[in-house]
Specification:
five-stranded antiparallel β-sheet; disordered N terminus; alpha+beta; Pdz3 Domain; 12 helices; about 400 residues; five-stranded mixed β-sheet
Amino acid sequence: MIYRIILLLSLLLPLSSCAQSQGFNTKESWQAFVQTVEDNYAYLDTAPTDWEALKAYYQPLAINATTQEEFVDVLQVVKQFFIDPHFNVSPLNEEDYSVTPTGSDIWVEKQGDDFVITRIKAGSAAAKSQLALGDMIVGIDGESTEAAIQRVFGNTLLPLTDAHKTWAVNVALGGRRNQERHIEVASDFDDAKRVQLAASYDAINLLRTKAPLVVKQKEGIGYIRFNNNLGNSETVRAFKEALESLESTQGLVIDLRNTPSGGNTGVAEPILGHFVNANTAYQGYKIQNAGKPYQEAELHMAHVTPSLPYYSKPVVVLVGHWTGSMGEGMAIGFDAIGAKAVIGTPMADLLGGINQFPLPDSTITLELGFERLYHVNGSYREDFVPQAVSWDGHTASDSELNAAIALLKAI
C-alpha cells in the first residue's frame, strides 16, 4: 500500500520537479544566468532593453520550464532583446534560428512601416535569387512579417522598439538552422514574388572547401579577400604568401566583407603586423569582472609587432554587414595603423571580446562580451563608421571595390 501511494504521488508531481530531481534546477539555473550576465557582460549598461523589466517578465517563464531545452528556449528569447550577435545561448537544435550574421545573407532596414532589403551578401543563396535591393519583405516561411517578429521574440507582451523589430526580421530571414527558407517580397516595380532559398549556412560552409583567400591584381592594385577564416591559423601563412606575390603593386585592397564568424587575435595580429615597422597599438580594451565593472577597469592597448614582408604601400579596407567580431577588430586596427580609408557599410556590431560561461549542473553555455573593445582614439569599436560609397545602380557592380581602386590609383 505504501509503495502504491508513493507511486501515485510521483505520477502527480509536475514535470519541473522531475527535471530538478535529475540535477537540473530551473530556479538555480535562472539565478546563475542572471548573475553571470550581471557579473560578466560588459555591455549591460548600453543594452537596448530594460534589464530589470526583462528579468521580472522572464523569471517565472524560466523557472516554470519543464525541461532544460524549454529553459534554453526562454533564454534564447531573452538574448534577442540585446540585439548583440555575440550574446548567445547553447545548446542549439534544428528548430533554433541560424546564428546572425554567419547564418544570414539578407539585411533589411525599417523604412516607414516596411522592412526593405538594403544589402544582399555576395556569393550567397540570396545573391543568386530574384531578390533585389529595395524589395520589401512581405512574408517569411509562410508567416507575415509581424508574425515572424513575434516568433523571434516568443510572442512576448513586452514592448518592442523599431530596432528590436528590425533585428527580429533579420534573424528570421536567416531561417532555421540548416533549413530552406521561403521569402515573399514586393516592390514598387514588380508584383509580389515568392523566393525559395537554400539554408543560409550552405554558402558559408562551402567556403571551407575553398582557398582561404581570394588574391588578384587589377590595374596595378592588389586585392586580398578573406573567406571567413580569421580563426584558421593557416590563413596567416596564406596571407604572407599572397603579400609576397603583390609586393610590386602600387596599393592594396583588404576585403573583410566576408568575415561574419570572426576569428582570433592569433590570426589577426600577425596579418596586421605586415603593415607596421614598429610595435604599434591597434585597439584598446577593458575587461568586465565580477565586482569590478568595465567602467572602473584600466584601458589597455593591444599591440602588433612587425611581420615580414613589410608592405609600405597605401592600403584601403572594405567592410560591411558581414564583417564581424575579429573582422571588426581588424578594420579599426587597420584604421589605427594608417590605412588610407575604411570603406563600406556599418559592420555587424558583434560586441566585445567574448568568453564562454557554463551554467552549473547543466549543458547550457552562455557566450558574452566580457571585454569592452575600443578604437585607439578611445571611441567604442561598435561606434566606428566606415566611409560610405553610393551604390551606382548596377547589381553586378561592386561600387565599394571600384571606389577603393580609384582612391589608390589617385595617390
